[in-house]
Amino acid sequence: MLKIMVFLMLPTLLLISRAEAQDLASSGAPAYVLKGTEVVSTPSLRLGRDYEAIVSLPADYAQSTRRYPVLYVTDADYAFPLIRAIANRVDRHGVGLQDFILIGLSYAKGENGAVSRNRDYTPGGAGVRPSPEQASGEYGQAAAYLQFLREEALPVLERRYRIDPSRRIFVGHSYGALLGLHVLFTQPSLFSHYILGSPSLWFDQHQTFATERRYAAQHKTLAARVRVFIGAEETVKQGRGRDMVGDLARFSAQIRQRNYLGLDWASSVLPGEDHATVFPLLITRGLMWALPETR
C-alpha cells in the first residue's frame, strides 16, 4: 500500500492572519508540519533564478532497489500537499495505487507565486499578453521554463532518485495545464502521462489551437496518454467572460480529427465543479487512471 510521508511547512493552508501566525511563532507553539519530505535545490543557471523541488518518497523506498514512476506537479504550494493527501486516502480506502515518487515544482524563490507562474507556465514569447484587454505584465516564457525542466531540473532529480524515466506523469491545472499542452506539442516524449485540469486555452487569443495545428502539419504520431478535466461551471455564466468548457470541447474535437498514432486522449466535464473546486476531483480520477494498483 502507498504511504507517502511529507515534511513541508504549509503557512498558506492555515486559516489565520499573518499577525496571528507571528503571535503563534513568538509564543513558542509548535508549527504544524506535514512530515517527511526532502527539499532539493534546482537552480537554473540559464534563467538566473532559483527553484526547488519538494520530494515525497514511497514508504518502502529505502528498503527497495527498484525504480518508481514519478508524478511532477506544478503550483507545488497548494498542489503538492493536496495530491499527497488524496493519494493516501484513495490508497487506504481499498482502491489501491502503485507506489510513486511525488515531486512538486516550486515557484521561483523570492517571487510572488502569481508572477512566477504567469511567466513560466504561459507560451508565446516576449510581449505576449493573456488577452487583448489586459496589460502584458511578464508572460510567455514557457519555452524557457521547459528547457530548464528538461536540461537542468529533471536530470538533477533523476540522478538523485530511482525514477523510471519511461513513466513520468505531468500534472497541471489552469496555467499549469496550459504548460502541459505546450510540452505535449513541443516535447511530447518528455512525459508519458498528462493529467490536465481546466487548461487556459483562451490565453493569447487561443494560441494553443495554432500550436497543435503546427505540430499536426509535421507529425502523424503523438505517443502520449492524456486525460483532461474541466468543471461544468467553467463557462461564461461563472463570470469569467470565457467559455472554457466550450474551448475544451472544440480543442478535443480538433485533436480527434488528427487520428494521431499512439495518442490516448480523453476529456471529461465534471458536473457541479468550477475553476476553484475541480482540482481535488480531477486529481482523484487522474491518479486512479495513471497509477492503478497492479496485482
UniProtKB/TrEMBL annotation:
Region (Disordered): 116-135
Signal peptide (from-to): 1-21
Source organism, top-level taxon: Bacteria
One example GO MF annotation: hydrolase activity, acting on ester bonds
Keywords for this protein: Hydrolase, Signal
Pfam families: Esterase
Gene3D superfamilies: alpha/beta hydrolase
Family affiliation: Belongs to the esterase D family.
Protein name stated in the entry: Esterase
